[in-house]
Amino acid sequence: MKNQKQEVSTMDDLQFRRNVYADPSHLDDETRQAIKEDANRESFVSELEALDQDIKQALNIDVPEDLKSKLILKQTFVSHRQQQRKKRVHLALAASVAFVMGLSLKFMQFSSAYNTLSDHALAHVYHEDGVFSNQMPANVTLASLNNKMETFDGSFNGQIGELISAEYCRFDGMKSLHLVYKGITSPVTVFIIPQNKDLEIESSFADENFKGRAVSYQNSNVVIIADENEKLNKWQENVESNIRWST
Q1: In this predicted model, which residue has the larger pLDDT, 109 or 150?
Q2: Which band of pLDDT confidence, cut at 50, 70 and 90, is reported for residue 4?
Q3: What are the residues facing 176 on neighbouring strands?
Q4: Overall pTM > 0.70
Q5: Which segments within 27-119 are labelled E, that is strand?
Q6: Distance of alpha carbon 145 from alpha carbon 148, whole angstroms
Q7: Closest CA to 84 of 117, 114, 128
Q8: How far is CA 47 from CA 51, 53, 108, in A?
Q9: Which of 110-114, 119-123, 237-241 comes out lowest in average pLDDT?
Q10: Residue 197: is it exposed, middle or buried by C-beta count within 10 angstroms (0-12/13-18/19+)?
Q11: Burial of 3 per CB tally in 10 Å (0-12, 13-18, 19+)
Q12: Distance CA 68, CA 74 (A)
């Protein structure tokens, strides 16, 4: 009798760690499968869960629970805004902040230093400079994407490009979805962000390195950011023709 073929996860270490760091207590089926296949990954998740418990106990004092995260991120974005006035260079403190945030990314919140959706989106892209490249595999499935889109009462009828990464992130304290697609010369970023009346929306924006567009829907905003080689109108058309909202 032939042995029944077992499903094997093809998730790489970068995707796996990002999923676990985002929320080790609520993992999707693909990540759980990856854990079952690798004892080292299982041990890593157990250590991270134990670390989360230690952090919760350490934060159980009479101060705001997220005070430490906000102070660290406030310092990072102040530095970023100073560099914006010069030439909008990359965040100098990204590496140190990434190290601190690696302890528990679920405490991560971007501060309210920005009043516009575009400035906040650009800061987010600069913050992750170097994490993604066009040479990375684009193996995120449509099913996996739509599983995360359920959080925002939306779905895609089809892929709008070669999807490198689809991960939750914090956008001005709101749980949002950060999509990274292969572009002509560099990755294209798409954010799915809940509506926030405190963030002003600019339909078009740009700086020395990137250009972007923002589209407002009933409950969510979609922001697209890419380099000068991309035709943003085509990306916007692909999004609008493929995305569906249930409410």
Answers
A1: 150
A2: very low
A3: 169
A4: no
A5: none
A6: 5
A7: 114
A8: 6, 10, 19
A9: 110-114
A10: exposed
A11: exposed
A12: 10
